[in-house]
Design goal:
Elements lengths: L1 E8 L3 H12 L10 E6 L10 E7 L2 H9 L1 H10 L5 E8 L1
Antiparallel strand pairs: 1-3, 1-4, 2-3
């Protein structure tokens, strides 16, 4: 299994919450995504990002299919221009 973790920066928590809702709405709509979690940061420390996303995929091909899927691409289109920074890690789990 491959776990995909993304942390996103936004100007405000309202936009982060709207992004979380859009990301979670992908659940069950992308065959190669076997799990999804997303949450808005609650600690608000200096090193915090506003939103974390975790998705799970059977393998690297499944992650690639997820990244290209039209449902994911639609969410990415909404995020473009709203995200102020992002980091990602993909690892075998």
């Amino acid at each position: 299994m491959l776990t995909h973790v993304v942390c996103l920066r936004f100007a405000d928590l309202e936009t982060a919450a709207a992004a979380r809702d859009r990301l979670l709405a992908m659940a069950g709509r992308i065959p190669s995504m076997t799990g999804i979690e997303a949450g808005v940061d609650t600690t608000r420390s200096a090193r915090s990002y506003e939103l974390a996303l975790i998705t799970r995929h059977p393998d690297a091909a499944g992650l690639a299919a997820y990244q290209d899927h039209p449902v994911h691409q639609e969410v990415l289109g909404w995020l473009k221009g709203r995200v102020q920074g992002a980091v990602a890690v993909d690892f075998e789990s």
